[in-house]
Queue: 2 jobs
Job 1
Amino acid sequence: MIGVWGAFAGALVLLLVLLAWVRAEASSKDSRSDWGAADQEQSEGENVEACSPEIVSQLFSAADSKFISGLESPGLENLFRRERTAVALHWVQETSAFISKVMRRHLEASRLRADLEIATEARIFLQYARLKLYCGILFVLIGLLGPQRLAGTALHAERFIQRVGEGLVEFQSAAQLREPEGSESL
Amino acid sequence: MLGQSIWWGCIVFETLLLVRGVAGRLWARYPIFYTYILFVWLQSLLRFFVFHSRPQYYSAIYWITEGLGVLVGCAVVFEIYRVGLASYPGTARMARNLLGFVFVLAFTKALVDTWNDPQWWLISTTMDLERVLRIVQALAIAALVLLFFFYSIPFGRNLRGVLLGYGLFIAESVIWLTLVPLAGEKFHHFWYQLHPASYFAILGVWLVQLWSYAPKPEPKTAVCLEHEYQKIASVTSQRLREARGYLVKAVRS
């Protein structure tokens, strides 16, 4: 039999899930009611792209930092460090938003497909979770250590994000190509 | 006095819900849900009649109707899944697998419990069995809502109301069925007031959300296809007009 705590946990999970769902429904209600806005959002999403590895490499490179240090101006050095950290944090946020947009578009496409494979979906979700975790860790580490010490990690994350992002886009394109066949059931 | 008022209030709300369901033809869209409400309405009247005329049968009638209510409630969960995911075959497939997993998990747990203690089935009260079934329903609803949430399935006002109200009802029932056997005499009185009051509030949610029919948002692709079709049709008719113009010119010359 299910114990008291098990029953309470079940009820609590249901209440929390319902609460989260109602809040999410309420926040997305306006955008859903206007198809134009939704389309605009989608086209905006298509324009967002992750930075190229060269820019990321430059952003996290220690070369600029060494050059500024060579000028022996503490004020300039502080300003440079602050600005570079802000840009690096902005890159992490943009990358995280890009991942979310790609994932959202994948979910919008896959929810209509009849030939959905659970193993593939689970794998994609795990990769998505891993990417978001990478972004979260990078965000904290950049704040703590500064971008210059994280060049290797950032480049690794960037390459991984590019690979998974491209994979998702290709997967989505393939699904859209198959869509006319599946759309007969709609 | 308060208990009687809530009880009568519930019957009035259920009647209103049924009347609005028939008037707005909502019953045709959610037949199982309205069957459930009709069942609860008839159950309330039957219990009231038995309580006043044949009190010795009240306990038996109460638990029989309660058991039947749980079974009809399972069908309501199925209807939420059927209506909510009718236009989303991909998510429907995921939901089938997820619900299958929840039921297999519940069945395995019951089997393991029976294996460990073969007498539990005999000594369990009707309340225990109802609690187990309600917990399974709670997990099934939570799994469904997670899926709706994850795949951003747009909901109409009506279906959202059915799901929200029924989800709250199940969560409250699980808490009630767990606490009542544990609580002392003082709490019994409190819980026996709170349970109908929360059901009354849930009926209020249903009444507001199901007062009139609200169309369910259709998936974007369907709209895109229709839009594309309209565009192609208008371009084709324009080209046909141009071709006809050239043809007329050619014939005249």
Note: Residues 34-185 of chain A form one domain.
Job 2
Amino acid sequence: MNDLAIWSEKLVKIYPGVRAVDGLSLNVPRGVAYGFLGRNGAGKTSTIRILLGLARPTEGRATVLGFSVGRDQVAILERTAFVSESKTLYGDLTPRELVRFTRGFYPNWSDQAVTKYSRLFEIPMDRPFSKLSQGNRTKVYLLLALSQGADLLVLDEPGMGLDPVVVDEFLRVLVEDVIGDGRTVFISSHQLADVEQIADWVGLIDQGKLLLEARLDDIKSQFRWVTVAGNALPPTKSPEVLLVAREGDFCKYLVKKDAEAFAAELSRQGATVAEVSPLGLREIFLALVRKEEACTSGNVGGVPAPISSAL
Amino acid sequence: MYFWKCWRCTRTHFIGSLIALPALCVLFTSIFVRFGDPDAMRKAASPSVIRAWSATTEIILGGWASFFTLMWGLILGASSLGEEFKERTADFLLVRPRHRRYWVWTGWSVGVSELTVMVFLAVGATFGTLLYLTGHVQSWWPLAMTLPLAVGGAVAYGLTYFTTLVVRSGRQGLSYGVGILFINILLPPATSYYWNVNFPSVLGFMMATCKGATSASEAFPAGSLVLWTAIALAFPFAAQLLLERAEA
């Protein structure tokens, strides 16, 4: 448990009328970039808020950097930098004053980092925050987070309002200065391409439930679409099948492991396997979070398998 | 850190008030003395006349000073911690590595400190003017007025500090604070008149300080002071309990 940067067990958060987080069990290793993906309202921000003590879980428990959420909150916050979705700071204060305000809270604060990143991101340090553009506000937030010397960076939509050049610089900084330094990045974003660029692991959440948690390399090397002709298919269930969807006269199986063996098994049972094809993060995301029509006539694979744990 | 931030965010209004308040004090005191006919009082030179005039002066000066302090406390409290939620900066603030009580007590301390400075200044300017114009100020008057004003101001400040945190909006918090304060001012006379029940009133406490007093020991309302100090401190305690259980 303590080897993990973030660990949660059956985390539940219920707001009036909404089950925002529904039995979420996360395992985020230390020293990696973890992409936390999901649609709007999937429960990403609610999860992050629980982990940072901004919201209280209805059920379940969690640790961050080995410290218990809720009980050891100050210890967690000393070691964690957070870029919130709202990117709102004190309008009257300039970035320089915000640095002055923030620096005293963190024993590992780096003024060198402030100088480096303020130049890199071209932040106007003496203009009031309220007069900055959305992109510059985001940059100030990133500057403060990066300068904390935190062991864990929790970034909620960090690229919001940034131009592609700055996003690229920021991702490079994350890879070289943060992950390269053995620290952990937990990044929640809709920008799948950006996440795919840096993430070692991904967790995919929908309606508060974790649909998938896997190494990105494993996804690329092992996840496959197995496309089968016809609808009246033999009943075959496999724990490796994440999803079954209909596409015209074909059924597509999203298989997380041993796709060839699964395809062979289908063939043995009389199905015609049309194709076994690799897929990227975007396709997996779309496949899992879209409510696609299930291939029910053959009852193959059953319901999208209770969502996968780590491979 | 947060102390500095609170100071940074309130200093413009504070410094503005530091300039405006003495001017107001001098103006009001001068008007009162002008219409209070101090020359006639001096000519009369009777101790009983002087005492009566002084008591009246105190009541009236204490009245406007009390009212002003209460209003200033209410307004100051509305631009406090609760506004962090309205301005959506609470997400930023509450993930800084401090216990939540730190935010409550630091923010409260800054406001109370500013309020106390203002009260000292108001009292100083008032009695300075009074001394200059009439030459009839006893040394214990300023002290006897300062403490009740500061405590009363802290009550008003703490009230909106708390209500602003409850409703998470400065404007709404101020409305609730003003409403509660007016009820506190209006209710005691009503209950006293109809049911002969005496509820404590913060304005009454502040104004009654020097009423008819001829010495420091008479003027210094120790019992009331303890009660209202406890009430003033109850608000940040309540705010702490609230914030420690609140979700941002």
Note: Chain A has two domains: 4-216, 223-289.
